[in-house]
């Protein structure tokens, strides 16, 4: 008798609403509003039509600045994330709804209420992407300003998540609400929660930090990691490292899903896909954007340089404050050295160097080859799934859902229908154990 074929590892998919970075091709005539609700609705409905696990919204708490001016790639006027997701709960049925919310500039009681409310209104589809900040520039918008030392941001985040879970557990489903009391390093609160325990028990927790502290925090507290490691080698190393950490917290590997952010370009042939990818890259890195990217590394005003000319022969200023509100380049001198070597080896201009160094697409090819590559990544433990970041708003996900998803379904690695109603069920995550005592 032929032994049964082992089940193929299933792929998890999520959709990231584009914008607030150079991924978006703003100049494309198909690029729509980043603010109108119709754009959010279109992308969310497309993701649900494709049976995706969740829809993901980033959040910025302050408009970034470049040389004292608002950064051109920022979206000005975008609504607050949880507000948008509450509206999307009314026009979707199964799609998970994930909001990025800072654990540095919020408080556990208020955020726990808001996330529990979203979970109730959506029937158990809420998720929270936990982010941290030690950025005094962003903190100026808040009462305590830049009070938080960088070394404390993950200790506060860990206590924040634990406290939110205590609050969600303080009112069991079908039971009487209980008073809560939490007294820790960062929070000393007590009282009663005004919203019943969420349908999922706890909304899904997503985390995106890549430092050692961030990986440890994810292993201890997260359900999903929003990873930046999209190449097979880097993905497998990251996947193995984080999954290995779970045991020290009494968790199993399947209790944490690793989903890198990825981009894709499809063509009828491999050659056509490569040509489209090259065009998109050049659209993403306009002459102006090339100089902005260069200034982020160099920390200097380089507006007098020709984007089609050579790289600057001056060194970066590592302690520059030219760019505010963006993640600082960790080692600008090393990055500049790599870019110079690349430019000299290939005879590239400033713009061509930035395109070559930064504008890389994760998956480029025909629908069949992209589907095969996605399956290979997941089958070899380079990822558990992917958060797709399209380059167009709001229709950038349409071709993937129409052309790639059916092939993944034919391969037996992606669902053909939703089998559950909650985001936890889509992700295959266990229900959280109620820790408040006997209901």
Automatic annotation (TrEMBL):
GO molecular function: monooxygenase activity
UniProt xrefs under CDD domains: Nitrilotriacetate_monoxgenase (cd01095)
Residue ranges of coiled coil: none
Domain Luciferase-like: 27-377
Record keyword Oxidoreductase present: yes
Enzyme class: oxidoreductase
Enzyme Commission number(s): 1.14.-.-
Membrane spanning residue stretches: none
Xref: Pfam families: Bac_luciferase
UniProt keyword annotation of Flavoprotein present: yes
UniProt KW keywords: Flavoprotein, FMN, Monooxygenase, Oxidoreductase
Family: Belongs to the NtaA/SnaA/DszA monooxygenase family.
Name of the protein: NtaA/DmoA family FMN-dependent monooxygenase
Naturally occurring in which organism (per UniProt): Streptomyces omiyaensis
